[in-house]
Amino acid sequence: MNPAVKYLLLGLSTRALAESAVKCGIDVTSLDYFGDRDQKAIVENISLARDRHLPFSAQNLLVEGLGLAFDRVVYTSNLENHPELVEELEKVSIIVGNSAKTLEQVRNWGLLRNFCRDNGISCPKTLLPGEEDRAIKDIDWLVKPVNGGGGRGILPWDKNSLDHDSILQQRIPGVSASAVFAANGEKGTVLGLTRQLIGCEKLGAKGYGWCGNIFPLDINDGLKRSLVGQIGTMLDLFVSKFRLKGVGSMDFILSRGLGFFLEVNPRYTASMELIEKGMDLNIFDIHLKACDGILPEIDILKQGKGRFYGKAIAFARKEIQVQETENWHGMGRRDIPFSKDRIEKGAPVCTLMTSNDTHEECLASLFRKGRALEKELGI
Description:
This protein is α+β, with helices and mostly antiparallel strands. 27% of the residues lie in helices and 27% in strands. The radius of gyration is 20 Å and the shape is globular.
């Protein structure tokens, strides 16, 4: 590891990734939208909103990023939806992660559904624009944006024609979950399974909006053994086909003992800091080594024998102005706004963190912390 190499961390929110990099002893500059208080306290951070007074867009990240000094780039959400911008970064720097070519393929649902069918991977029925007449009537269908993220924009199908940026997908009832992995372009290693928190009204979330994770996924040993085998096989197939590199996650629905594939997130994801805490790992170090071909040895069948770790995003139910936030870090809060910041209705206020003996206690603790935050803010 060369300490003279300068890394640029790029994405909507880079706080957790920056924390991991700092613990790894890496020299980084981060460029994201929020520029949260706890991130600016540990690294050089440039915020689109706070420092550049710009709205969030991947294009703005690219333009502002190209004006900075760096040797290598590690990106996070939502650059995976913009391979053309990653390709621009490839012209001026080393991408430590997945290439633009990989992104084009692994986010292409026309390609993905055929790959799943040909390899026996359980997957919801998926239809592309122009195929609406193939929608079976007794199936619940969801409209999903092709370049979405965090569950935003997912709605029940109203029987109207799709636009070119959407797909139809069968709604599978079950538990929303994700598998965090590391890959070296040939094979992958599952680092951990988490439950996803979706649309929790107690956190101010709605619909299918993602609002947090709990690690590890709370399932019995027999089901875990079966699921680990399914996910491991699925992961190796995806890595071999799409040449995935570095850390990423695979979202799935656990239904009737099967993991139904939903999507690959081919970059650092929000659930990874829970696995870092719970497994005493450094995700940034794992990412660098995986890109160099070295994968860790992890026995995830042993996970869940100790503590559970949770994080939740608290969303503003109305426009608010936070008061003093200097002590928020000590209260188990992350992605902290600055004192006197104004936050729009529906925007994230901060991240709530907890650790408990059981899954149920972990979830209840997150909800309590959410309610305490709302009382403090007068919501």
